[in-house]
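User:
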Amino acid sequence: MDLEILLYDGFDELDAIGPYEVLRNGAQEGADLSTRLVTLEPREAVTASHGLRVGVDGTLGSPEVVLVPGGGWGDRAAASAWAEYDRGAIPEALADLHGRGATVATVCTGGMLAAGAGILDGRPATTHHVAHDDLREVAEFVDARVADDGDVITCGGVTSGLDLAFHFLAREFGEELRDRVARRMEYDPSEDVYLG
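Assistant: Predicted structure:
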């Protein structure tokens, strides 16, 4: 299974790096999963919201799963999920991928980029608390750490991305593998998951 994490300037570090580590550990434990860090346009690196520069593996392809981090929604910064929502290129790419059958997973206010793509319309979803009201305008807001509606998986803010990644491992590769990764990382995944 191919999974790509779509980065942009201003993404929250933990929103992307947390799930990345969980998923890469899953592959080391036997999951048939390839995880890459990508951008929409060719570039060597992106700068996250707290200044971390992250190298990328290439540009967005046609993965089976695309994961989108959030960051900066409440600040309305020039480099943020808010700015990417306003620009529209990421929501457009998500709509295209989802329309071709990809699963879209979002962490934190990355969910608002999926909302901008129209793929959360009327569906159960969650996001960081700063965007709850915005999300309620288009989706069926769910008060849970993770909301799984099949081909769309969303989660709350920041650390919820870890729980989304662990849930994804269990869903796709089994609870035993998820538990091995949790032991390896010394993390107790939340069971606060809404299944649509």
